[in-house]
Design brief:
It is an enzyme of class 2 (transferase). It is found in: Cytoplasm. InterPro entries: FAD/NAD-bd_sf, MnmG-rel, MnmG-rel_CS, MnmG_N, TrmFO. The chain is of the alpha+beta class. The chain contains 13 helices and 17 strands. Strands 6-2-1-7-17-16 form a six-stranded mixed beta sheet, covered by helices on one side. Bound molecules: flavin-adenine dinucleotide (FAD).
C-alpha cells in the first residue's frame, strides 16, 4: 500500500498524474468510482471523459495562454495531449477532440501500462498513510466531499463557484475610471486605492439594467440544481428583483468621489478589485452571472471605462467542488495539514480540461519525485504551468478565491514592452518565448 502512489479520480488530472508518475518509475493505483458510482455529468466508465464540450480551446502556442499550456504538456510527454492529438477534429485554430476514442485511448494506455492498475471504487476518506493524490474534480462524490470538509474546515471547501468576470488591468480606461476604496478606508495608500471605480450617470445605469434583463442566460445542467445564496446572486437575478437593487447593492455610489468630475455625483459605480498579487487582473465586484459569454462581453463593455476591456475570464456559476488552495496547499500541492495528500485538477481551483490535466501533470511529477527521493526544482513562474500553480498556491487572494483559467494576466510583465491592446501581439509572443525556454530548462533538470 505505501509503496504505490494512490490516485483518486481518473479524470483529466488523475489520468495525467498517473501517467507522469508511472513514466518516472513509480507504481500507481488509480481509484475511480465510475462506472459503479456515477455523476450527473459523466456518461461512461472511461477514464478522462470529457463531460461537456469536446474542445481543448486554442492550440496557438505563440499568442494564447491555453495553447502555450498545450505546448508545455506536449514537451513533458503528456498523455492527455498525445491522446488529444491522436483524435483531433478539424476546428480551425482550436484543438477539438473526438471524445469517445480520445477517452478510450487514455483508458487503454493507462490500463496497459505495466506500472499502473485501476480499481473501480469510491474513496470516502483521506488516508493517514501512503502517498495520495486526490483528483476527484468538480463533481467529487458527496461522501468524500464531507471528509475533505472535515479535514480542511467548512470555509475552505466550496460546492458552487460564483465567478465574477476578470479584466486585464491595462485595458481599463483610467481617463474615465479612478482608484479609490469606499470612504478611503485603509491604513496604507495601497489600501486606500485598492479598487478601480467606473461611474455611471442615470441614463447609463438604466440602459445597463435593460441590457442585463434582455441578455441571453445559460441554464444549469440537468441535475445541477442550485440554491442561490443571497451573498452570491447572479447580477441579472438582482436586476430582476428591482431596477434599483443593484444601485443599493454592488453598484452603490456612496463613499466615492470621481476625481475626473468632482462636482458630479455618480448615479451608480461599478467597482473592480485587484485579483492577483501582480496587479495585472481585476475582478468586477459582485458581478457573478449566468449570462452567456457573448452577452457578457457586450453588456460589460457598456460600463464607462470598460469600453475596450479585455477579459481574462468571463463570469459564471456552476456546480463545482473546490478547495481554498492558497491557504491549504503548499507549493508542491500537498495539503499542509496532511502532507501525504496532494490535490490536483479542478478541485484545486483551476478550471477547464487543459488546466486540470496540467495540474495533474505537476502533482504526478511532484509525488513521484518525493517517492523516489529526488529533488525537484520550483516550477518556473514564467511558464504557463508555473503561472497557474503559483496563482492557486499563493498569488491569488485567498479571501475571494475562485476558480481560474490560464491567461496572460497571470504572467509577470516582460520589461520594455508596450502595454494595452496595441502591444498585445508582441507581448504575447514575448511571454510564450520566455515560457518555453523556462519550461524546457525545468524539464531538463527534473
Ligand atoms: C457539467 C459540467 C460541464 C463542464 N464543461 C466543461 C467544458 O465544456 N470544458 C471544460 O474545459 N471543462 C468543463 N467542465 C469542467 C471539467 O469537468 C473539468 O475541467 C475537468 O473535467 C476537470 O478534470 P478533473 O480531473 O479535475 O475532474 P474530472 O475530469 O471530473 O475527474 C474526476 C474523476 O474523479 C471521480 N471521482 C469523484 N469522486 C470520487 C471518489 N470519491 N472516489 C473515486 N473517484 C471519484 C469522477 O468519477 C471522475 O472520473 C465542466 C464541468 C461540469 C461539472
Amino acid at each position: 500500500m505505501t509503496d504505490s502512489l494512490h490516485i483518486v479520480g481518473g479524470g483529466m488530472a488523475g489520468s495525467e498524474a498517473a501517467w507522469q508518475a508511472a513514466e518516472m518509475g513509480v507504481d500507481v493505483v488509480i481509484h475511480e468510482m465510475r462506472p459503479k458510482v456515477g455523476t450527473f455529468a459523466h456518461q461512461t466508465g472511461n477514464l478522462a471523459e470529457m463531460v461537456c464540450s469536446n474542445s481543448f480551446r486554442s492550440d496557438d502556442d505563440e499568442q494564447n495562454a491555453v495553447g502555450l499550456l498545450h505546448w508545455e504538456m506536449r514537451a513533458a510527454g503528456g498523455l492527455i495531449m498525445s491522446s488529444a492529438d491522436a483524435h483531433r477534429l478539424p476546428a480551425g485554430g482550436a484543438l477539438a477532440v473526438d471524445r469517445d476514442p480520445f477517452a478510450e485511448t487514455v483508458t487503454n494506455r493507462l490500463r496497459n501500462h505495466p506500472r499502473i492498475s485501476v480499481t473501480e471504487e469510491e474513496v470516502t476518506d483521506l488516508p493517514k498513510d501512503g502517498q495520495w493524490i486526490f483528483a476527484t474534480g468538480p463533481l467529487t462524490s458527496p461522501a468524500l466531499g464531507e471528509a475533505i470538509r472535515h479535514q480542511t474546515g467548512a470555509d475552505s471547501l466550496a460546492f458552487f463557484d460564483a465567478i465574477a468576470p476578470i479584466v486585464y488591468a491595462d485595458t481599463i480606461d483610467m481617463r474615465r475610471a479612478w482608484l479609490q476604496s469606499r470612504y478611503d478606508k485603509g491604513e496604507t495608500e495601497e489600501e486606500r486605492t485598492a479598487y478601480i471605480n467606473c461611474p455611471m450617470d442615470r441614463d447609463q445605469y438604466e440602459a445597463f439594467i435593460d441590457a442585463l434583463l434582455a441578455a441571453d442566460k445559460t441554464e444549469f445542467h440537468e441535475g445541477e440544481t442550485a440554491t442561490y445564496f443571497d451573498g452570491c446572486l447572479p447580477i441579472e437575478v438582482m436586476a430582476e428583483r428591482g431596477r434599483e437593487t443593484l444601485r443599493h447593492g454592488p453598484m452603490k455610489p456612496v463613499g466615492l468621489t470621481n476625481p475626473h468630475q468632482p462636482d458630479v455625483k455618480p448615479y451608480a459605480v461599478v467597482q473592480l478589485r485587484r485579483d492577483n498579487a501582480l496587479g495585472t487582473l481585476y475582478n468586477i465586484v459582485g458581478f457573478q452571472t449566468k449570462m452567456k459569454y457573448g452577452a457578457q462581453t457586450s453588456v460589460f463593455r457598456m460600463i464607462p471605462g470598460l469600453e475596450e476591456a479585455g477579459f481574462a475570464r468571463l463570469g459564471g456559476i456552476h456546480r463545482n467542488t473546490f478547495i481554498n488552495s492558497p491557504t491549504l496547499l503548499d507549493s508542491q500541492m500537498r495539503l499542509r495539514s496532511r502532507p501525504n495528500i496532494r490535490f490536483a485538477g479542478q478541485i484545486t481551483g483551476v478550471e477547464g480540461y487543459v488546466e486540470s490535466a496540467a495540474m495533474g501533470l505537476l502533482a504526478g511529477r511532484f509525488a513521484a519525485a518525493e517517492m523516489l527521493g529526488r529533488d525537484i526544482a520550483e516550477v518556473p513562474h514564467d511558464s504557463a504551468m508555473g503561472a497557474l500553480i503559483h496563482h492557486i498556491t499563493g498569488g491569488a487572494d485567498a479571501k475571494t478565491f475562485q476558480p481560474m483559467n490560464v491567461n496572460f494576466g497571470l504572467f509577470r510583465p516582460v520589461d520594455g514592452l508596450k502595454g494595452g491592446r496595441r502591444g498585445r501581439k508582441d507581448r504575447y509572443k514575448a511571454y510564450t518565448d520566455r515560457a518555453k525556454a523556462a519550461w524546457n530548462d525545468w524539464l531538463s533538470h527534473s
